[in-house]
Amino acid sequence: FFFFFFVDSDFTFFKIYNIFIACIIYVLHMHHNHEQGVTKKLEWSEFMEQQIVSDEGKQKETQQIEQIQKLEVQWTKERQELVQQAQQYEEQVKQYQAQTQKLQQELSQWNEKYEATQEQHQSRIDQITASSSEQVLKYTEKLHELVKDYEQRLKEKDESRSVEIQTMRHTLEALYIYTYMYIYSTIHDSLEAKLRVQISTEYDHKFSEERKKIQQEVETYWKKKLNPFSFCNFDINNNNKKEKAKFENLSVSGPLNSDFGSAALSTLVTSLTERKQSSADFAKPVNFPCLCKRGRKTKRNVANTIAKKYIRTLYMYITFENSWNWTCEEVGCWLISINCKMYITSFIEQYIDGTILLSDIGEHELKNDLAVKSMHCKKIIREIHHLKH
């Protein structure tokens, strides 16, 4: 049974065939063993003098024989079918083999043709490359000759053009410098003249008005208060004459026309301070403190208004560079640029220039000395930090 089951075969129907044969052999073997067992039992029954009815065994044998016959018939049919299928498969295999042989022959033919075409193609490529290389060499030689001729012509033209270009360059540079200097001088002169005229007229007008007011106040004060003191009229008149002479000699148009810029304002401030000191010295022996305070306040207001007006006009033309070398007026322009123009008077009174602004000014100085609000202190300190860096 196991021998027939494990026999190797190429097709499945051979395996089925072997299984079927093994089943038949197994059935026959069992039948044979049954017969032997029956004979043995009969021998023992004869030996023991017992009779056994054998009708049932005969019926079973007949049934088994019929089953075996049926199985043989089925097996023969299946065998014939399997044989037919095997023949068909063999025929198909033969056909496939013939087709493969034909295809192999065709492939060999196509390979031979392909090799022949490759050889022809390579021979043509070699011919073309040889001819093209010769043509390329000829063209390169011609190109080298043309390039040499072109370079020689360019050199000749460049020499002639270089002279023309140099002459044109010199003339253009001269024209550019001349036009630039002319335009710069005209613009500078016109702006300077306009600024001088505007500043001088405005400052002279305002200063003359303030001077008239101060003179009227002084004259009214002398008329009201100093009439009882007849014994010192002579000294007071002399002092009044000196004071009037100082007011008349002091004018804004002179320094602004002579020196335009921060020097004019510095001279004006120094003259105002000298006048302040002289008026204070004059007030001491007379002992009229009210007059001294009013005079100082008016003079301070005049100086501050003049400085503010000058700073506003200067702000239109100033460029914020070299902050360490700034004057008080330029510091005022810087305050206008950061929207803190309300502190210009305090900065001018403390005479804060660029070096003091960048080196000595901190939050403590801004709050205590310059009366800056806490909401503006951080902004001013931040802008000072930007100027330093």
TrEMBL record:
The keyword Nucleotide-binding does not apply. The keyword Repeat does not apply. Residues 72-160 form a coiled coil. Residues 326-389 form the SAM domain. Keywords: Coiled coil. Pfam families: SAM_1. Signal peptide: none annotated. This is SAM domain-containing protein.
